[in-house]
User: What shape does this take?
Amino acid sequence: MPTVDGNTHFYGFECVNLGNGTDPWPAAQLMAIERVGTAICRTHKWGAQSVIGHLEWSNDKIDPKGFTMPGMRDRITRRLTTPLPRK
Assistant: This one.
C-alpha cells in the first residue's frame, strides 16, 4: 500500500527520541505531547481519537516507539474530561 502524505491533513510535531523503543521518553516530553494534543482537541472540539502517531497512518514510519498511542490518547481523554480551572 503506498504511503499517503498526511502533512496537509494533520498537525504534526517532531519529538526528539532515537525511535528505537529503548530510548526513554522524559516525563516532561510526554506531558508536552499530552498537553498540546489536548489543546488542539479542545480548540477544534475533537476527541482524543483524533490524535494519531505516524505508525498509525503511514506504512513507512515506525514512530512513536517507547510509548503507545492508545496510552497517550487515554492521557488526553483524562485531561479533556477534567474541567479547566476558572480564572
